[in-house]
């Protein structure tokens, strides 16, 4: 398929495809286009965002079956072949012979590249090594001074995953403040968020909306644009004294206060009612995985707050109320809250 045709056909499944590099489009045309068309025939849409438990299980199944077929003895060898130079040639030959790309993406309606990255994250033993020691943090600073943002190189030197070293460096690269936010920091955060939102809106609106439509858009974008998919690493750089996760949490708090006009939704009788509403709505949804929950819709159940606020409150609820919650499935957690905690909260209310 030529490049223009590939763009046109892929655009049906990936609206932002024209912003992707030509080399990536060619790869997607080769790896994804036929699969996407097959999923369309089955009435299945291409997905983005967080992977569900069902999708994670499908990746595990695909990897296990491929290992059985080829005789490759570990997922790490399959997905991190460069770590095994003596076996590299044999593994790559087996991957080509047994169509690794097709097998890995089987049954998952997502771009192959995202499935591959997810599989690498799931099966990388370097992803689960716990907290960084002081010595590791110093090593990370030293390696970054030598190699810059070459996270692949740094991850090999530290035996940590690419994502892990990149995120950790983001936290320690400057004098990060862990105390209460100062007025100056809060103003910097608000200014940084405003700048990235304005930039995004100007890019989206350029040559596409009339002035009257732009005026209407300014009114209608407020809620969604103010807290969804913001570039937090860019905002972190603009703030300077906080890492990205702190910025995101603080911004959620600011928005919640603005939306609720400073009311304490999770205090007193309002707090009890909010927890009751949250448990009931989650139970009614009958979903098997947290990734399937429409958190945006749920936010209306406790006052129209940002979905990150609702997710944080649910996390606190399960940690404080559900024994051994780490070993339970999402649906088991919801059932426990509904059957055991809900009657207690209603009586208290």
UniProtKB/TrEMBL annotation:
<dbReference type="InterPro" id="IPR001005">
    <property type="entry name" value="SANT/Myb"/>
</dbReference>
<feature type="domain" description="HTH myb-type">
    <location>
        <begin position="124"/>
        <end position="161"/>
    </location>
</feature>
<dbReference type="Pfam" id="PF13921">
    <property type="entry name" value="Myb_DNA-bind_6"/>
</dbReference>
<feature type="domain" description="Myb-like">
    <location>
        <begin position="124"/>
        <end position="172"/>
    </location>
</feature>
<dbReference type="InterPro" id="IPR017930">
    <property type="entry name" value="Myb_dom"/>
</dbReference>
<dbReference type="InterPro" id="IPR009057">
    <property type="entry name" value="Homeodomain-like_sf"/>
</dbReference>
<dbReference type="GO" id="GO:0006363">
    <property type="term" value="P:termination of RNA polymerase I transcription"/>
</dbReference>
<dbReference type="GO" id="GO:0005730">
    <property type="term" value="C:nucleolus"/>
</dbReference>
<feature type="domain" description="Myb-like">
    <location>
        <begin position="173"/>
        <end position="255"/>
    </location>
</feature>
<dbReference type="GO" id="GO:0003682">
    <property type="term" value="F:chromatin binding"/>
</dbReference>
<dbReference type="InterPro" id="IPR053078">
    <property type="entry name" value="TTF1-like"/>
</dbReference>
<protein>
    <submittedName>
        <fullName>Transcription termination factor 1</fullName>
    </submittedName>
</protein>
């Amino acid at each position: 398929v030529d490049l223009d045709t590939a763009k046109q056909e892929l655009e049906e499944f990936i609206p932002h495809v024209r912003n992707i590099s030509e080399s990536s489009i060619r790869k997607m045309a080769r790896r994804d286009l036929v699969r996407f068309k097959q999923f369309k025939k089955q009435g299945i849409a291409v997905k983005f965002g967080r992977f569900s438990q069902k999708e994670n299980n499908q990746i595990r199944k695909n990897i296990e079956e491929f290992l059985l077929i080829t005789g490759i003895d570990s997922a790490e060898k399959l997905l991190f072949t460069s770590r095994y130079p003596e076996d590299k040639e044999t593994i790559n030959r087996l991957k080509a012979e047994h169509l690794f790309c097709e097998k890995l993406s089987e049954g998952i309606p997502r771009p192959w590249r995202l499935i591959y990255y997810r599989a690498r994250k799931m099966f990388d033993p370097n992803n689960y090594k716990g907290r960084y020691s002081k010595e590791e943090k110093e090593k990370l600073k030293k390696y970054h001074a030598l190699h810059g943002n070459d996270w692949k190189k740094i991850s090999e030197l530290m035996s940590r995953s690419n994502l892990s070293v990149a995120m950790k460096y983001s936290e320690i690269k400057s004098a990060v403040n862990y105390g209460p936010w100062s007025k100056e920091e809060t103003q910097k955060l608000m200014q940084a968020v405003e700048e990235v939102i304005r930039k995004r809106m100007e890019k989206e609106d350029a040559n596409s909306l009339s002035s009257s439509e732009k005026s209407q858009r300014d009114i209608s974008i407020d809620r969604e644009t103010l807290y969804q998919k913001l570039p937090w690493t860019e905002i972190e750089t603009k703030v300077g004294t906080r890492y990205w996760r702190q910025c995101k949490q603080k911004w959620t708090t600011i928005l919640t206060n603005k939306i609720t006009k400073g009311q304490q939704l999770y205090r007193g009788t309002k707090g009890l009612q909010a927890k009751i509403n949250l448990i009931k709505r989650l139970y009614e949804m009958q979903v098997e995985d947290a990734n399937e929950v429409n958190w945006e819709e749920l936010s209306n159940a406790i006052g129209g707050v940002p979905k990150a606020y609702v997710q944080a409150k649910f996390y606190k609820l399960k940690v404080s109320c559900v024994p051994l919650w780490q070993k339970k499935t999402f649906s088991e957690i919801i059932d426990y809250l509904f059957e055991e905690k809900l009657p207690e909260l209603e009586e208290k209310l």
